[in-house]
Write a structure and sequence with these properties.
Layout (H helix, E strand, L loop, with lengths): L1 H54 L3 E2 L6 H14 L5 E5 L6 E5 L5 E6 H6 L2 H16 L3 H26 L13 H21 L3 H14 L2 H17 L33 H12 L1
Parallel strand pairs: 2-4
Antiparallel strand pairs: 1-2, 3-4
Helix pairs in contact: 1-5, 1-6, 2-4, 4-7, 4-8, 5-6, 7-8, 7-9, 8-9
């Protein structure tokens, strides 16, 4: 099923980029955008995990450097019957964690310094079990590809809009339109981001919570961890977090209120905790 989702996501984003190219440069722009989209699809499949890890300054650690953390991941990996992933620490005080990679054989898990400070060993193990469930369910490919392509679309959109403002766009008489194309970009970029959020279904977080609770054997520990992470993330949002990568984390690293919550990549925290508490009972 995730292969179908990934194929749908790549196709949708390719069509969006091609439409952007046509709006800004006519047929020529459309062809350039198509070639660029194909290149981005291939590049993001192979290298998107490294891009995301570098984006957050994640540092790979060994068992000698972080014995408790590393052994915890290895223990969960053994229980789940998965290959050992690479293990990273993110130098951020905001408490959070995520998994990335194109498949279980090329997976990585990352936790912030902040999460290690506020969680007990049992709670941290439950969180890492959640992330290993993402690896086992093969959620990580679609999540990481989505993050990379969404970021590329937003970046290109901003560049082209500024180019139109300062006279770098095509004439309105040309096919595709210059200023009109830039205005279209202002609309298409947020729509593209929304499509990314919709493609990365909230349901996978529920499944990862359930799988993490079973893998760790501690549903209440995961529920308590989510409470702490929600409160900690609100008090100390991740300063360098980006909307395109927010869905990777176990809790949303960005603050969302009001109507913005309707488009959040994460399900309501109250419901996630309630489901875990029902599992414990």
């Amino acid at each position: 099923m995730n292969r179908v989702k990934t194929a749908f996501l790549l196709t949708a984003l390719t069509l969006i980029l091609v439409a952007m190219g046509h709006a800004l440069g006519g047929r020529g722009g459309m062809m350039i955008a198509f070639v660029f989209a194909c290149g981005m699809n291939i590049f993001s499949y192979w290298f998107s995990d490294q891009i995301v890890l570098r984006m957050y300054g994640a540092v790979e650690v060994t068992e000698a450097e972080q014995p408790a953390y590393y052994q915890m991941v290895r223990r969960l990996t053994s229980r789940a019957g998965l290959p050992m992933p690479r293990v990273y620490i993110i130098p951020s005080d905001s408490p959070n964690a995520f998994a990335t990679g194109r498949n279980p054989e090329h997976a990585a898990v990352a936790a912030t310094q902040g999460i290690m400070r506020i969680l007990s060993p049992e709670e941290l193990e439950a969180v890492m079990a959640h992330e290993m469930t993402h690896v086992a369910n093969r959620d990580i490919l679609i999540s990481t590809v989505a993050a990379t392509l969404a970021g590329a679309i937003s970046m290109i959109g901003n560049m082209l809009q500024w180019g139109a403002i300062f006279g770098g766009s095509r004439s309105d008489d040309d096919e595709g339109g210059g200023v009109a194309g830039a205005l279209a970009m202002a609309i298409i970029a947020p729509i593209a981001a929304m499509l990314i959020q919709l493609a990365v279904s909230r349901s996978r977080e529920y499944l990862a919570d359930e799988g993490g609770a079973k893998l760790s054997g501690r549903p209440l520990a995961l529920a308590n961890a989510l409470r702490k992470l929600e409160a900690g993330s609100r008090m100390l949002p991740m300063q360098d977090a980006r909307p395109a990568t927010a869905h990777l984390f176990i809790v949303n690293p960005l603050t969302a209120a009001g109507i913005a919550q309707l488009f959040s990549t994460h399900p309501p925290m109250e419901e996630r905790i309630a489901r875990l508490e029902r599992m414990a009972r």
